[in-house]
Write a structure and sequence with these properties.
Shape: elongated
Distance between the termini: 14 Å
Number of strands: 3
Oligomer: single chain
């Protein structure tokens, strides 16, 4: 991710770039799962997510907090 980002933008990768990308990735995965724009459906899809990212495993608990995260 770092090399692709820096080659494309000509800028050094910083933490907020990676965090922003991951946020979009999580939303994309939830929308692909639910195929709905209903808030209730999206929240349920986010709570059910358990995915691998370049941060490591990401999963969310019933209150929306990250349960699994490895850097």
């Amino acid at each position: 991710f770092k090399a692709a980002f820096e080659n494309r933008t000509g800028r050094n990768l910083e933490l907020f770039h990676a965090a922003g990308y991951t946020s979009g990735y999580i939303i994309q995965k939830a929308l692909e799962t639910t195929r709905s724009l209903s808030n209730t459906d999206i929240i349920a899809a986010l709570r059910a997510l358990d995915i691998e990212s370049f941060w490591g495993r990401l999963a969310f608990g019933p209150e929306g907090y990250i349960l699994a995260h490895a850097v």
